[in-house]
């Protein structure tokens, strides 16, 4: 979905890009002015230092040989390549010697450093210019005209001194090199500023547009999900960036929500179908009791049966609520260090009389010292449900009924297995269905139960970040509770 420019500028990414670009531009402009000013001051300082050295050398020459030696030294230095500006003038400012042909008016009137750069022409530049650009009037321009022309020449700074005989000496340096250097610095920084601005625009165009496109795709997927399509998922490109991480977390949340909705639907269906039979049986029993004349004993037996049936319904409702809480992750049960060997010992001790009465041998094997992070009561309840099922369904064994509870470590998992030698569940699909709510694979329904034992055990294992596996034991069935190994800190 394409965005117009006003709409794009309303986005956070575009605003941040514009702010960063403005900040970089301001910093670059300030850097241009600072570097230009700094380089100019540095070159001016070096120029003044050079002129001072020249003046000291000329002063020593004047002290040794007076004006004649000073003039010879000035003439000699004036002819050297890349020479500084040298000028000796009379008291009226008339140039006597040096490599300066004309000056901007007023330069020689004040003694000391010139306050501002001045214009000048070197000796012979006027004649060379007239040869290159001949004029109609062959007459020689006057000195004032030359000085006016000098205003269009080079720029320089100089130190003006009065000699003891009131003659004027000027020593200066052309500013062409500092100005060229300053121009180079300015051009380089301006080019860098332009490249930075262009780079910022390109980065925003490619990276920013890609980010906005990703956001549009996520928004479109979110609208579909809000429209009721809970099977929809946010796109993941595999780049591993923050958008992918956000999409993965939201997809996990959506999958969790879908699981909870499915669980809620199952609970509703279970209540509507599986609990209808015991409620109907309760009503029929009460109606049959009230339909005729019965003795006090009959009424008492009917009430006792109703209470027993009601207790079983309450247990069923409690199991359903416990499963729902555990699957939703909202259980208020606290966790701590649980010794699995102690839990096995307690459950086996509890069910030994039941197993002995049913003619089933209850055995244990494994080592002590296996601990997990969890809830002791929940683990005990899950193990109790599994052991109770194993005892009930091992009675039909062709050999001596036996139930074995084993505890061992496999890799980084601690496995608690309950194995019987009964008929087992040979079909893979039936073993997968056995952990669903109210599923009872026994067609005769001769054994008591509500079909919630393994479902509750599976929910408890999910709460402990473990898993519940139903494996064939050949003969019989092995129910394995796999816990992640506890990391001691």
UniProtKB/TrEMBL annotation:
Its EC number is 2.7.13.3. Residues 130-150 are annotated as: Disordered. The chain crosses the membrane at residues 12-34, 188-207. Keywords: Kinase, Membrane, Phosphoprotein, Transferase, Transmembrane, Transmembrane helix, Two-component regulatory system. SUPFAM superfamilies: ATPase domain of HSP90 chaperone/DNA topoisomerase II/histidine kinase (SSF55874), HAMP domain-like (SSF158472), Homodimeric domain of signal transducing histidine kinase (SSF47384). It is found in: Membrane. Residues 209-262 form the HAMP domain. Its main location: membrane. GO terms for cellular component: plasma membrane. Residues 270-487 form the Histidine kinase domain. PROSITE patterns: HAMP, HIS_KIN. SMART domains: HAMP, HATPase_c, HisKA. One of its GO terms (molecular function) is phosphorelay sensor kinase activity. It catalyses: ATP + protein L-histidine = ADP + protein N-phospho-L-histidine. It holds the Pfam family HisKA. This is histidine kinase. It comes from Mesorhizobium wenxiniae.
């Amino acid at each position: 979905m394409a965005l117009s420019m006003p709409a794009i500028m309303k986005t956070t990414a575009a605003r941040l890009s514009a702010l960063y670009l403005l900040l970089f531009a301001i910093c670059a402009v300030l850097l241009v002015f600072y570097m230009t000013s700094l380089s100019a001051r540095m070159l001016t300082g070096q120029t003044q230092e050079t002129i001072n050295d020249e003046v000291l050398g000329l002063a020593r020459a004047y002290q040794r040989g007076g004006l004649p030696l000073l003039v010879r030294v000035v003439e000699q230095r004036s002819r050297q390549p890349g020479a500084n500006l040298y000028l000796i003038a009379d008291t009226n400012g008339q140039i006597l010697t040096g490599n300066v042909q004309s000056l901007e008016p007023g330069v020689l009137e004040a003694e000391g450093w010139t306050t501002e750069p001045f214009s000048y022409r070197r000796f012979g530049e006027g004649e060379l210019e007239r040869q290159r650009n001949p004029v109609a009037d062959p007459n020689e321009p006057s000195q004032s005209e030359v000085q006016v022309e000098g205003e269009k020449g080079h720029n320089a700074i100089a130190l003006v001194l009065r000699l003891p005989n009131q003659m004027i000496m000027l020593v200066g340096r052309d500013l062409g090199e500092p100005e060229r250097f300053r121009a180079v610095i300015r051009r380089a920084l301006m080019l860098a500023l332009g490249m930075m601005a262009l780079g910022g625009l390109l980065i925003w165009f490619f990276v920013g547009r890609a980010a906005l496109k990703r956001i549009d795709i996520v928004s479109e997927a979110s609208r579909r999900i809000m429209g009721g399509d809970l099977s929809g998922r946010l796109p993941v490109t595999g780049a591993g960036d923050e958008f992918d991480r956000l999409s993965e977390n939201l997809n996990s949340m959506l999958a969790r929500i879908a699981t909870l909705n499915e669980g809620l639907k199952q609970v509703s269906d279970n209540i509507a179908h599986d609990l209808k039979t015991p409620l109907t049986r309760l009503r029929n029993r009460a109606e049959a009791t009230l339909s005729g004349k019965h003795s006090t004993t009959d009424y008492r037996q009917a009430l006792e049966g109703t209470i027993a049936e009601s207790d079983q319904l309450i247990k069923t409702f409690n199991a359903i609520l416990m499963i729902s809480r555990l699957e939703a992750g909202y259980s208020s049960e606290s966790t701590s260090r649980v010794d699995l060997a102690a839990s096995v010992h307690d459950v086996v001790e509890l069910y030994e009389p039941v197993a002995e009465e049913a003619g089933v041998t209850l055995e244990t094997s494994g080592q002590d010292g296996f601990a997990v992070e969890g809830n002791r009561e929940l683990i005990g309840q899950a193990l109790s449900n599994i052991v109770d099922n194993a005892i009930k369904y091992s009675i039909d064994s062709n050999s001596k009924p036996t139930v074995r509870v084993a505890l061992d470590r496999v890799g980084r998992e601690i496995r608690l297995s309950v194995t019987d030698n009964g008929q087992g569940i040979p079909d893979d699909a039936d073993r997968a269905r056995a952990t669903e709510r109210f599923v009872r694979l026994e067609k005769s329904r001769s054994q008591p139960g509500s079909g919630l034992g393994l479902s509750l055990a599976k929910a408890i294992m999910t709460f402990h970040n473990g898993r519940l596996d139903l494996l064939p034991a050949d003969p019989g069935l092995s129910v394995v509770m796999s816990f992640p190994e506890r990391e001691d800190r």
